[in-house]
Design brief:
alpha+beta, T-fold, 9 helices, binds adenosine monophosphate, binds magnesium ion
Amino acid sequence: MSLPDPCKQKISGFQRSCILLFRGRQSRRNRYAGILPVVLLFALCLCGCRRQDPSAQISDVGFYFDTVVELRLNGTSDQKLIDRCFEKMGQYEALLSRTREGSDVWKINHSAGKPVEVSDDTAALIALAQKYYELSDGAFDITVAPYVTIWDFPNNTGQIPAEASIAAARIHVGLPLLHLDGNTVTLDDPRASVDLGGIAKGYIADRLKEFLEEEGVTSGYINLGGNMLTIGSKPGDIPWNIGIRRPFGEASDTIATVKVDGLSVVTSGPYERYFEKDGKIYHHILDPASGYPVWNGLASVTILSESSADGDALSTACFVLGLERGMELIESLDDIEALFVTEDGELCYSSGFPEE
Ligand code: AMP
Ligand code: MG
C-alpha cells in the first residue's frame, strides 16, 4: 500500500529523529529530550496512517432527534469516530429536546418566568434563533412551542386542535418574550415556551462536522433526517450529488439534484410531518402569527449554505415567508442559495444556485 504524502513526511521525520537520538553520547536530560519527539512522532504517524487510508470508507445509521440519521466517512476505517458522533448526538438530544425532562429547553419551559442557566450550546442556538427571527420578520420563531404542543405532530394524533386552544396559546407566543443574557435565559411570560426543532439539527450537524474535521476527516457527510451536511468532496475530488426530495413523493424520488463540495443542503416541507383529515393536510411548519400550518403555495424550500444551522433556520423561515418574501431574503444574503418548489411543481432557483 502506498502511503499518502503526510504519512511519508512523518516517517522520514521519525527516521531523522532516530538518527539524531543515537548520534554520540548525550546527557540523561538530553536523552529524554530526544525520546519525547520520537514517541510523539510515532504516535502521530500511527494516527495519521490509520485515518488516511484513501480506499477506506465507513458508514452507519442511527435514530436520534426522532428521525433516522446517517454518517458516511471516506478515507478512514476508524469506527470510533462514528461511535463518538452518535454519543454526541445523544448528548445534544438530552440538552435540546423539548420533551426530555431535565434538558436545557425543558428547564427554560418549566422556569415559570425565573432566570435559567443554560449551556454554551443552548445559548449559541438561542442567539442564532434570535438573529433569524429578526431577519425573517418573525416568520422563524422558536416560541411557537405552545402551538407545537397543541398540534403534537411528533405523536401524530391526527386531531385538529380546537380553535379556542390555539387562540389561547397565541398570547404566549413571540420571541421578544425571551431574554438571553450570556448563558441566562428568562421568559417574561411564565406560559411562554421554546422549541428548537427548526434549527437544532443544523447546529448539531455543524458541531459534528467540526469534530470530524479536527479528527482529520476530509470527506464524508452527516445526514440528520434529510438535513445533509457534506465534508469536502467525494474521493477523487468529485462533488457530492445531493438529491432534493419530491414533496410527498417516495424518499428516493427526487425533483432536482445539486452538486456540492463541503456545503449544507437542508430542506423544509410539510411532507416531513403531517396528517390528513377530511381531504386536508395539516403539517408541522406553523405560522407564528396564527398558530396554524402555513399554506402559501409552497411545497418545499431547500437552502444551500456553508453552515447547516443557517440553512436549517432559513429553510423553515423561507417556507413560512412564501416564495416572494423568502426569495427576497435569500437574495439579500451572501453565500446562501435556495430552491423553492411550489405546490404546482414549479422550481424557482435563487440567482446564484449552482447549475446541474
Ligand atoms: P424544519 O423541519 O427545520 O422546517 O423545522 C420544523 C420544526 O420547527 C417543527 O416541527 C417545529 O418543531 C418547529 N417550527 C414550526 N414552525 C416554526 C416556525 N415558524 N419557526 C420556528 N420553528 C418552527
Ligand atoms: Mg429548519
